[in-house]
């Protein structure tokens, strides 16, 4: 079977995390959530009481952290210096603060080096983020951009965050997604596919349809 590298980028709410996990499980590959790494550094910087805009201090912290990353798609997880932070990194507080860390170029250099080392390990992998197809693994065997129109993304995130997509949840989520996208776009262009990257618009597809389309693309491309 396929034992290569699948690189997947996309904005929040594109459904990429659950899709990538499912694809990795079906193909027996490892799974890497690079967003969790940016979230983990954000968590550590807040935990240590750092000023998130003090770029040299945050970069020094990042370089000194031991990130324990599970690449098992059935049990993904991340620990910072031995502390399991899988729950804490998903809070709104971290989502609101992560852009300050993702725009820190020295943190990016540190995390990108770690990501490349993980990807290069044995066993094939599905790696997802914002800059995997372009910067981290531009020579991946399969490169995909998952997109979805804004309404679809907001509805998915609202269900994730609030367990519902009612009017109130949609409104709260809309503000959050728009702000994060705008900030993230200043570092990496993850809304437009680079040369050779296949775009998959998931707006009108069910989860199962997205997974099977990705598997089909892997079959054709690899
Ligand atoms: O994917 P997720 O929403 O968990 O990513 C959290 C944040 O990490 C993003 O909003 C972005 O700022 C940053 N990120 C990044 N590059 C990546 C993955 C995530 O800048 N490859």
UniProtKB/TrEMBL annotation:
One MF term in the entry's GO annotations: dCMP kinase activity
Coiled coil spans: none
GO biological process: pyrimidine nucleotide metabolic process
Family, per entry: Belongs to the cytidylate kinase family. Type 1 subfamily.
Iron-sulfur is among the record's keywords: no
Keyword Kinase: yes
Ranges annotated as spanning the membrane: none
Catalytic reactions of this protein: CMP + ATP = CDP + ADP; dCMP + ATP = dCDP + ADP
EC number(s) from the headed UniProt entry: 2.7.4.25
Keywords: ATP-binding, Cytoplasm, Kinase, Nucleotide-binding, Transferase
Domain Cytidylate kinase residue range list: 6-219
Shown stretch of the complete protein: 37 to 258 of 263
Origin species: Cryptosporangium phraense
Cellular-component GO terms for this entry: cytoplasm
Protein name: Cytidylate kinase
Domain of life: Bacteria
Binding sites annotated in the UniProt record for ATP: 10-18
Subcellular location: Cytoplasm
